[in-house]
Amino acid sequence: MKLAKMMRVAAVGLLALGLVALAGCGVQGGTGDATPKNASEPAADANANDNGEAPAGDVVSTAMVAYANGDQVLFVDQDTQTPYIPTNLDDATIVVDGQDVDEDALVAGNIVQVTGNGIMLESYPGQYPGISKVEVIEQGNPADAEQYADIVDTVFAAPDQSQVPSGNLDYKTADAQVSVMLDPYEFQWKWDTEDGQVSEANASGFAADGNGAVSENTPDARIAEATDAFIAFSVNPTSVEIERTPLIKDASAKIDPAAEDEDVPSTLGDDGAIALRIEPNYLYEVKATFPQGEAEYAFYTVS
User: Fold this and answer.
1) How far apart are the first and last CA of the chain?
2) What pLDDT shows up at residue 146?
3) Among 112, 118, 122, 117, which residue's Cα sits nearest to residue 144?
4) Model pTM?
5) Are 193 and 252 part of one and the same domain?
6) Is residue 98 part of a domain?
7) What is the mean pLDDT of the chain?
8) pLDDT in tens, 247-291
9) Is residue 118 domain-shared with residue 188, that is, in the same domain?
10) Which residue of 5, 114, 208, 244 pairs with 282 in a disulfide if CB–CB is 3.0 to 4.6 A?
11) Bridge pairing between strands 72-77 and 59-69
């Protein structure tokens, strides 16, 4: 299990390098390059300004549809060759030949212009929940997407049931896009083995001890104000509960053990990404349920 986990962490680290390149325009709040990389110009964006550019703050990039089958869609950024899942496509405008369509119209080999907020969740592959528009600018050919067959097989392969999922908290500040890795501090896990038996693993831990001191293994997120954030796990959860406890003012990573926890509103998307709003100076605890069991994660916020 330790070796598999190290390999997973390494994969996420390598992926992050590509994701920074994709999201760099959004980090600085600039407007991405709206010029398509083929001779076929896309239809004008109803949200574009008079120069045909995307609104300030949007990121425009070009990707190939590497795989599309119902709600399973994979894009590969053509600048960085980074694979990612375009999540929440139901909420995005999808345009083919100047007509609004649904995601079922996307086919492998399409070259698409993607407009969004630039916040990529650093799971593997990355998840992009902030897409507002996808426009097919070149039909392409399914054979063109065969170069990504190995990536597609890896992305849509059944996950290792014995591995307790890791996660990432992703948010954006005025200066950078930040990703904080979340490892479970407590879990109850069961899975079927190849010989038909059932194995289980359990771990106990805490986010803060009996005196209120936050565990040194609990990562921190540094934010100046209330901020929209996303959490993505390596396996999609079936349900999530999030609570928070205020940190003691002027104390270093400590909560009042007698303080009451507060429920944190969150939205679990069909793609498994969790949207929430975080505020400075709280300890957040995330209880996620998966097909193989439950796991708890934590992070704290400081200004």
Assistant:
1) 36
2) 95
3) 112
4) 0.60
5) yes
6) yes
7) 82
8) 998 877 999 888 899 999 999 988 788 999 999 999 999 999 999
9) no
10) 244
11) antiparallel
Check whether residue 9 and residue 99 sit in a common domain. Answer: yes
State whether 226 and 150 are in the same domain: no
Compute, in degrees rounded to 10, the torsion defined by CA atoms 290, 292, 294, 299: -60
Q: Are residues 138 and 48 in the same domain?
A: yes
Q: To which residue do tokens 């119209």 refer?
A: 105
- For residues 18 and 148, membership in a common domain is answered with yes
Task: Check whether residue 137 and residue 235 sit in a common domain.
Answer: no
Residues 6 or more apart from 182 whose CB is under 8 A from it?
A: 166, 167, 168, 169, 219, 231, 286, 297, 298, 299
Q: What is the 3-state secondary structure (H, E, C) of 7-70?
A: HHHHHHHHHHHHHHHHHHHHHCCCCCCCCCCCCCCCCCCCCCCCCCCCCCCCEEEEEEEEEEEC
Whole-angstrom distance, CA of residue 146 vs CA of residue 113 = 20
In our burial notation (b when 16+ CB lie closer than 10 A, e otherwise), range 166-183 reads: bbbbbbbeeeebbbbbbb
Task: Compute the residue count for the chain.
Answer: 303
Contact 241, 287 (CB under 8 A): yes
Domain extent, residue 174, equals 167-302
Mention every residue, 6+ apart, whose C-beta is less than 8 A from residue 129: 87, 88, 119, 121, 230, 269, 271, 273, 275
Residue 143: both structure tokens together: 């054979």
DSSP 8-state symbol, 98: T
Cα separation, 93 vs 91, in Å, equals 7
The pLDDT tens digits for 150-204 are: 999 888 887 789 999 999 999 988 888 899 999 999 999 999 988 889 999 999 9
Q: How many domains does the chain have?
A: 2
Of the candidate ranges 9-23, 126-140, 227-241, the one whose mean pLDDT is the lowest? 9-23
Give residue-wise pLDDT tens across range 22-69.
Answer: 333 333 233 333 333 333 333 334 344 444 454 556 889 999 999 998
CATH number at residue 47: 2.40.50.140
What pLDDT is stored for residue 55 in this prediction?
Answer: 55
